[in-house]
Each structure stands twice: as C-alpha cells, then as structure tokens.
Design a protein that fits this description.
transferase; single chain; 5 strands; 375 residues; kinase
C-alpha cells in the first residue's frame, strides 16, 4: 500500500495576501535567514573587517528586487572575507530570476563560485591538499549553480503558467464559438418550424374569426370573434419578430418589450398610473413587469368584459410593485378556456427574479394581481 499523497498547499493568509505584502514577507524572511547564517558562525576573535562585510551583505538583500546585480556585488565581499554565504546565494537566485541566463548571471555565478573555492587568508588556501581543492571546486559549482537553477526555474514556471492560462482562455473562446454555432443552427431550425407550423395555424384562426365576425348576427359572438382576430393578429406580429431574431442569431431579450412600452397595452376603460422611471428599472425586472401587465389585462378581456380596470406601477420599500385590479364584470364572459397557465408562468418568472406574485378575487366581485420585484 502506497501512502496517500497530500497536495502541498500554502497558508490561506499567504495566498490571499496582495503581491506587495508577499514581497515584503519574502524580503523579511531572506534577511532573517541570512542574518542567522552570519550570527551563528561568527568566531570569537574575527578580523575587524569580516563582520562589517558580512552584515553589509545581509543589509544589501533589501535591494535584491530592484538592483539584483548590485546586490550580488555587495554580497561577494561578505562571502569572501566573512560568512555571508546564504546572503550571496539568495542574491544570486534573485539575479537569475530577473535576468535568466545573461552575462550578469554568469558573472555573479562565477564570483560566488570563486568565493566558495578560494579561502581567505591565502595561507589557509595554500595549505589545502589537491583533494580538498577539488572538493571545494565541486561545492563552489553547487553553491553557485543551485540558486541560478532555482531562480530560472521560478521564472520559467511563471511563464509556462501564463501560457497555460492563455491556452485555457483560447479553448474557452473556441468552446463558446462552437456553442454559438450550434445555437445558431438550432435557432434556424426552430425558426423554420415556427414559421411553417405555428404561423400557418394562427393565420387560419384569424381567418376563421374574421369570417365568424362577418357572418354572425349575435353581438356577443361578433365581439368574441373580433377579440380572437385581434389577438391572433398580435400573436402573428410577435411571432414574426421572434422568428426574425432566431434567424438573425441575435439575443431575443434585446427586443422584448419592457416597462417603457407598457402604455401600448392600455385600451379603453383602463386607468394607467406609473410613478417610476422605466429607464431606471433593470432590464429583467422591466420585461417581467411588462409581461405581468400584459397577462393581467388579457385575463380581464377574456373573463371580465366591460369591467373597470386600473394599472398601478410604483416603487415601494426597494421593490417594484405592479398592481392590476378590475371591478365586477358588466357582461357575461364569452367562455374562453383558461387553465391558469398564464398566472402560473408569471409566478415562476417572479420566483426566478426573487420576487412574489399574488392573485385573487376582491371583496367587490372583481379580481386583482399584485407582483413585487426587488430593485
């Protein structure tokens, strides 16, 4: 059984911190580690210049993000005459991260390698055997090569991550274009079906209603036929607009009427009061308000002929409130079929927009519909 691999995750505070905060934290950590590297190895009676050069190298790390090559040059004396090895390696890694493989990186790596290979004072260096010289040369290559490799690896990894993000965005764009192409094909197919089937059937209904209006002598039947013909004509107009949108591939929401066009729904016997600016209402809420008034007035025409009707649109407690109220019908309903699907659709629309819709009879024998949508 292999042990379960746990992904390495950075602390949440470090991930959510700003780039400036992370940079300051990185500089502080580098200075602290370099200072510990110097402080823990200082002998009891060092030469007077060695501590000065060592602590100068530690302080120079504060410049490594802005002047990395200068930082390496300031750290070299501290490494050669003192004990600032870690400071020189950190400075060299910052230089490689900024410059990648350039003459500055090569020069800095050579200086750090020489500082690790050559000992000070000279007498100690000359007393070493040839085996110790070979070992020091190997460690010099490692001390200089490891920061260069890490710095270049960090930069290359960042570049690869940026390329991967660009590729991911390109793939997302291709997917969206493919989906748009598929939707356009489906729109065209749906437009053909609607034009060939629905439009033909609605046209026949309008023609039959016109023939009934001319041939009948009953006033109520003639009025019902006129209403059917008018509604069929309006349905054909809306259907043609929708078919045009489907064929053009545009957004059907761009042409749907909103609260600014609700006046077109008003007919004789309807009192309209709008106390809000239609242009200030969000587009989804505006379209929902139009459909609410349209459906309510259609129900009044079908089931409450001759009733006095009022439409009120106002803002109340951060909500857009639409109230459509009608009085008791003055004449008998022509008996249009209704299953309540219109109000059901309005209630579902209101729920999707975090609103509410209430409908029910009033005490005077009328009916009212109240919808509230958050602004």
């Amino acid at each position: 059984m292999l042990p379960r691999q746990v992904p390495l995750r950075l602390p949440r505070a470090l991930v959510s911190a700003s780039p400036r905060t992370r940079a300051l934290a990185s500089d502080a950590a580098a200075v602290v580690l370099a200072a510990l590297d110097v402080w823990l190895v200082v002998p009891e009676e060092p030469p007077w210049y060695s501590p000065w050069f060592s602590w100068l190298a530690v302080a120079a790390l504060l410049l490594r993000r802005h002047l990395p090559f200068v930082t390496v040059l300031l750290c070299v004396p501290g490494f050669f005459f003192g004990w600032a090895q870690l400071a020189a390696m950190i400075a060299l890694g910052s230089l490689a991260k900024r410059e990648l493989f350039s003459w500055k990186t090569a020069a800095g790596a050579l200086l750090v390698c020489v500082c690790r290979f050559v000992l000070w004072p000279w007498t100690d260096f000359l007393d070493l055997t040839w085996k110790e010289h070979i070992l020091d040369a190997m460690y010099g290559v490692l001390v200089a090569g490891m920061p260069v490799a890490i710095g270049m690896l960090i930069t290359v990894r960042g570049q690869l991550s940026a390329r991967i993000r660009d590729l991911a965005r390109s793939q997302d764009r291709e997917k969206r274009l493919h989906a748009a192409t598929v939707r356009a094909a489906e729109r065209a197919k749906l437009a053909r079906e609607m034009h060939d089937v629905v439009s033909h059937q609605v046209t026949l209904i309008a023609m039959q209603a016109g023939a009934l209006q001319v041939s009948t002598t009953d006033p109520e039947s003639r009025e019902a036929a006129a209403t059917i013909r008018a509604l069929s004509t309006q349905t054909l107009e809306e259907l043609r607009e929708l078919v045009g949108v489907l064929r053009s591939g545009g957004d059907e929401e761009e042409i749907q009427p909103g609260l600014d066009e609700v006046d077109a729904l008003v007919h004789d016997g309807v009192a309209m009061t709008i106390s809000v600016d239609p242009l200030s209402v969000p587009a989804p809420i505006s379209r929902a308000a139009y459909r609410t008034v349209q459906e309510a007035l259609t129900n009044v025409r079908k089931h409450a002929g001759g009733a006095r009707t009022s439409v009120l649109v106002k803002e109340s407690d951060g909500h857009l409130e639409i109230e459509v109220r009608n009085s008791r019908p003055r004449r008998r309903s022509p008996g249009f079929p209704s299953g309540g699907h219109g109000l059901l659709g309005l209630r579902e629309r209101a729920t999707l927009l975090s609103g509410t819709l209430d409908a029910g009879p009033t005490t005077d024998g009328g009916y009212r519909v109240i919808a509230r949508y958050p602004l």
